[in-house]
Amino acid sequence: MSATATTGKGLEGIIAGDTSICQVDQTSLIYRGYEIADLARHATFEEVAYLLLVGEKPDAEQLRFFRDELVANRALPRQVVEYLHAAGPMLAEGTAVPMDVLRTGVSILGNLDKDSQDNSPEANLRKAKRLLAKAPTIIGHMQCIIDGRELVAPNTGGDAKLSHAANLLYLMSGQRPSDDYVKTMDVSLILYAEHDFNASTFTGRVIAGTLSDMHGAVTGAIAALKGPLHGGANEAAMEMLKEIRTDIGPKNEVGAVTEWMHRAFETKRKLMGFGHRVYKNGDHRAGILHKMGRAIAERQGSEQVALFELGEIVQRIMLEEKSIFPNVDFPCGMTYFVMGIPVPQYTPIFVASRLSGWCAHIAEQHANNRLIRPIANYTGAPLRKWRS
Ligand code: SDX
Fold first, then answer.
1. Domains of the chain, with CATH numbers?
2. How remote is the CA of residue 366 from the centroid of ligand 1, in Å?
């Protein structure tokens, strides 16, 4: 038995294993050796997903084949479409939110996948591609059902001519998106794709570590990502900004925002979209998305620009008074809002992207596995007799 490492709560600072997929630290975010700003500037999400799943940048032929596979697998099985229609009243009632419905849809996909019980590298890669292809279709069909609209291209899962990011937007709205929306969505998917042993990825690895299957591990990861301390923060951050806007009115008066923030500080309220377990000097992804989202707002009008300016005032106060930086979820909330995406679909879109990282980690765990089983520090009652 090796020496036990003690840790702060939440395994802070503990190295829980090795990975060749991603490196996250104060100075950089690297996917398989490529720096995130380099990928955001020069790659597409399809290329990044291939890089994460296969380990190398695809050449033109490999990329064409990968893209064609994703397109060919976008449509959903009848059983999943039937479930999505059945989930309509659950969503309307509020007993289920889109993240819950996406989680169940993925679970049903597992029940229908011919490779479901096969954890081999080849089967895991096939399942990863099918999940990547189908998650946007679950999101898009779900949004049409919420809106009471006809499903968009249910037989094909969208428009084969559209990229992954463009088709996701098309499936949700029924409108083919503008180039700037497509580029911004594509970069957001690249930024969200992978982040080493974050809570949802680690959840997936723990499940895979028992030699359970990929769909089960992804289902668990979706449940973990939903939480507002993790992926759910992109929705919560936008709801927080809407609350501030309601409370202070349409003008961004710094005094009123400062008063709002101080009331939040007094009640020890966690301000969503801020802080990070690893990044203490800023999230390498946040500035990239903020810039793109703000550029869309500036092409739209003063109300949208005012939202970003409100966000910038909040960021400035958090930094000056708490030394806390925004994480990627803060600019994501504002960016998806000005793109007209319904707030409850923000974290499902995070899933559509992070599936690439999750599936890479699940396959890596299966390929070189040891059961993940830490020990606990007992703080309960001392030893005692049941019959005194
Ligand atoms: C993601 O891990 C990843 O890589 C995740 C992710 C990924 O790509 O997978 O990057 C995606 O999940 C980003 C994080 C999204 N979550 C949020 O925005 C929720 C709000 N953030 C906080 O809950 C918090 O910052 C965490 C959960 C993200 C990190 O928390 P830690 O490391 O456990 O730090 P902590 O909560 O112990 O905070 C340390 C101090 C505390 O003050 P004290 O109680 O010691 O006086 O900083 C304060 C906290 O109160 N603090 C905040 C704050 N974040 C930290 N105070 C107000 N608002 C915040 N957001």
1. 29-227+343-367 (1.10.580.10), 233-338 (1.10.230.10)
2. 30
